[in-house]
Amino acid sequence: MSKILFIIKKRNTSYGISFGLKNSAEFVANSLIENGHEAKVVQVFDNSNIDKEVHDYKPTHVIIEALWVVPAKIRELLKLHKKVKWTVRIHSKTPFLSNEGIAFPWIKEYNLISEEFSNFKISSNNFEFNQDLSKVIGNESIYLPNIYLPTKRIKKVRKEDDVIKIGCFGSIRPMKNHLEQAIAAIIFAESQCKKLEFHVNSGLLEQRGEEVLKNLRGLFAINGHDLVEHEWMPHNDFVELVKTMDMGMQVSLSESFNIVTADFVANNIPMVVSTDVSWMPWNTRAVPTDTKDIVTSLKSAWLFPKLTWFNYRALVNHNKKAIKAWEVYV
């Protein structure tokens, strides 16, 4: 039996809570526990707090979630805990990483460390990026995908009225493509003779997300539709918000898994995603820079709501494969 410790950096309150990473790690941890392992998720303030958590929990495996531990600290920790298997788990694909100046310089250093220490590996939660990364670094990167729990399908009855609520949640940043999605949602709502409520999270702005939010507010100021802004919230509360939506959108420019999509799918709500959310059925995916294609996908999802069953099956199938990948590692 393995004992896995997931370690997340705790963000300052001015920046926001790491809800996405925390949810991701907890879903995987809970799944591993269900499969007979021990697992725990902890948040620490910085590099210097990691040693204490590892010393106290005495894990067989440590998963550092995302790129935030400096390579020198990784080397130090490996010398202190030689019997522990370590990995840094990357949660982004190349387009997003290109905005992080430390990404590939650190990956280069991590790769050198993995050649020196057999108990350290680089990993990724996305299959395609994992393959690319393994090729460019010349060493095997471990594929450790997301697992989404719970997966019990919730029945939802659509209430027909003059307003359509579309949730386009997640941190606001250019790569999330909110403005393009909002334009497509407006065109779609008007084609159905409905008023649009376009729901977003405005509590976390990243990589010049302030400009995106400013444009969203400007867009909705020139028509009769509404932009509804929500603060960040714990996952259970967020799921309750998701349940009030008629449809969801995650037609972003880069994704490695996308937990928000899984939240909508688990609650039986029609969803339109980008081609990057590869675990979703092909008919739900739209080209993120093609407004007409996004509108077409929205119409299909709206007119054929029973197709959400295929979305749910896709999530279940992803989970089965993901659990197998983790079992190989632990």
Tell me what you see in this structure.
The chain has a six-stranded parallel beta sheet with strand order 2-1-3-4-5-6, with helices on both faces. Strands 9-8-7-10-11-12 form a six-stranded parallel beta sheet, sandwiched between helices. Mean pLDDT is 92; it is low at 13-17. It is an alpha/beta fold and 330 residues long. It has two domains: 3-144, Rossmann fold (3-Layer(aba) Sandwich); 163-314, Glycogen Phosphorylase B (Rossmann fold, 3-Layer(aba) Sandwich). Helices cover 42% and strands 18% of the residues. It has helices at residues 19-34, 50-57, 71-80, 94-97, 103-116, 127-137, 178-191, 209-220, 235-242, 259-266, 291-303, 308-329; strands at residues 3-9, 38-44, 61-65, 85-90, 120-124, 142-143, 163-167, 195-201, 226-230, 247-250, 271-274, 285-286.
The residue-averaged pLDDT reads 92
> Looking across the biggest beta sheet, what order are the strands in?
2-1-3-4-5-6
Radius of gyration: 20 Å
Taking pLDDT < 50 over at least 5 consecutive residues as the criterion, the unreliable ranges are 13-17
| Helix and strand pattern | EHEHEHEHHEHEEHEHEHEHEEHH
In CATH's first tier, which class of the largest domain applies? Answer: Alpha Beta
Topology:
Blueprint: E1 3-9, H1 19-34, E2 38-44, H2 50-57, E3 61-65, H3 71-80, E4 85-90, H4 94-97, H5 103-116, E5 120-124, H6 127-137, E6 142-143, E7 163-167, H7 178-191, E8 195-201, H8 209-220, E9 226-230, H9 235-242, E10 247-250, H10 259-266, E11 271-274, E12 285-286, H11 291-303, H12 308-329
Structure summary:
With 330 residues, the protein is of the alpha/beta class. Helices cover 42% and strands 18% of the residues.
